[in-house]
Amino acid sequence: MRAVVYRGVNDLRLETVPVPRLAAGELLVKVAVCGVCPTDIKKIQHGTVPPPRIFGHETAGTIVKIGAGNSSLVTRHSSLKIGDRVALHHHVPCLDCHFCRHHAFAQCATYKRTGITAGFEPAGGGYAEYVRVMPFVLPGVVKIPAKNSFAEGAMLEPVNTVLKAVRRLNLLRGDAVLVAGQGPIGLMFTRLLQLAGARVLATDLLETRLRLAKKFGAKWTMLVNSRQSTVVGRRRAMDRGLATVDWPLKAVDAAVIAVPSDAAVFEALARVRGGGQVLLFAHTKRDSNIQHSTFNIQLSTICLDEKDLIGSYSSDFTLQAEVARLVFSRRLDVRSLISHRFPLEQTAAAVALAAQPTANSLKVMVRVPADD
Predict the structure, then answer these.
(1) Per residue in 103-124, pLDDT tens?
(2) Which of 28, 39, 83, 254 would be 65's cystine partner, CB 3.0–4.6 Å?
(3) CA 32 to chain centroid
């Protein structure tokens, strides 16, 4: 089969590799589409894991084979059969360890194992024509309804990560929430927070994304400059209807930082009222310290004003059924988030665009060989 193999930093090669062989109870899935995720971009561009690997974990496709032999997990999930159109989930926790009992699934040793591969060290494998799905991640497999596309199925994993983060916020209906960044992830936050009853203030550098934010449920939008901290041009913003004269709110009850901007963190901590929360979602690069010459954090205000600075990373397997209902019912309609689709042989170009998005790019997908 064809697969795009990671051979080193920014080195992705279309190669011919063996179709994965199955053990008892494993699934062979013919990949239809795989989303490009910032997590894989980081690994590809910074070489944080050794090659060779086949990346891609936001995967949907069709079951074409089931490994022979007894498997308690296959028995438990016996409704899965050849021909099913499915969305895959490459991380499933043990649900029993210290971290799982604290609902910190991303810290679970079982969760950190990748249960889907197209060859080499398991790394998701979605940038290939076929993937092998191991039994321990079968509980995360979701059937895609006939009315929904493979692309919608591939969006379950990123939506799951966002819903998990939303659930970390202690919100009441009517609370005001700042969402900094309106890329695909930020737009998902805007919609899910709006569905939860929050009033969302969406900020971004791009007017096109602010217009989308309105469609996804933002009550207010605000154009910011490259420092993520000030309104760009009072007259310009008013003329284009994208922002009020200044911050439309004196304070917000929570803030979600959906861009890796330190300045946005400082701004959010200043704008969140006492008892509020600032949630970091995009600061995933280790050894990155907050340093800024203009802003500073007074730790006493976090203590005295009882503000929380929290993080959320990866998905929550226990939310998978709810995520499927949201996406497949189109209460969260992810179709408008998908802006570009590249064939498998152009995976490197897909990764490059997702790493350096343009004004017209949002979610980038790889078709293997063709999406429905």
Answers:
(1) 999 999 999 999 999 999 999 9
(2) 28
(3) 19
Band of the pLDDT at 283, cuts 50, 70, 90?
A: confident
What residue ranges do the domains of the chain occupy? 2-160+315-367, 169-311
Structure tokens of 332?
């969260």
CA-nearest of 140, 154, 126 to 53 is 126
Q: What are phi and psi of 7, to 5 degrees?
A: -110, 0
CA distances from 1 to 18, 40, 115, 161, 343 (A): 6, 21, 20, 31, 15
Mean pLDDT of the chain, nearest integer:
90
Q: Which tens digit of pLDDT belongs to each residue from 325-349?
A: 999 999 999 999 999 999 999 999 9
Q: CA torsion angle for 315, 318, 319, 324 (degrees, to 10)?
A: 100
Calculated CA dihedral for residues 358, 166, 56, 49, nearest 10 degrees: 100
Lowest mean pLDDT among 71-80, 224-233, 327-336: 224-233
Q: Which two tokens stand for residue 235?
A: 């007259």
Please tell me the distance from the alpha carbon of residue 115 to that of residue 132, in angstroms, as a whole number.
8
Question: What homologous superfamily is domain 169-311 in, according to CATH?
Answer: NAD(P)-binding Rossmann-like Domain (3.40.50.720)
Dist. CA 85–CA 29, nearest whole Å: 9
The structure tokens listed for 261 are: 């901007």
- Residue 247 corresponds to which tokens in the numbers above? 């911050």
Give the β-pairing of 308-311 and 272-280: parallel
pLDDT for position 241: 39
CATH of 2-160+315-367, one of 3.90.180.10, 1.10.340.30, 3.40.120.10, 3.40.109.10: 3.90.180.10
CB of 144 closer than 8 Å to CB of 234: no
